[in-house]
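--- STAGE predict ---
source: upstream dedup step, 1 unique chain passed
mode: sequence only
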Amino acid sequence: MKKFILIASLLLAFTGISFAQTTAPAKKTTATKTTAAKTTTAPGPTKKDGTADMRYKANKDAAKAQPTHVKKDGTADKRFKENKTPAPAKKGS
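--- STAGE serialize ---
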């Protein structure tokens, strides 16, 4: 009798474990995602999505000329080294 109870409890335990390993099916959403195309005014060739193609020198030079760190209003953020203007040379004493 003890063997029967042991086998039955193990059988129930293994079936419970096997059900715990299955994953729930993913929920499907019916909402469609809309992505706005990034359009830039690149001086050189552009990619299919409208962004500048950085393989060309004209686009690389234009990217370097623009400040990388800007404030919310679009002006250059002077806290960063690349946006600071060089200080005038001091006269020797």
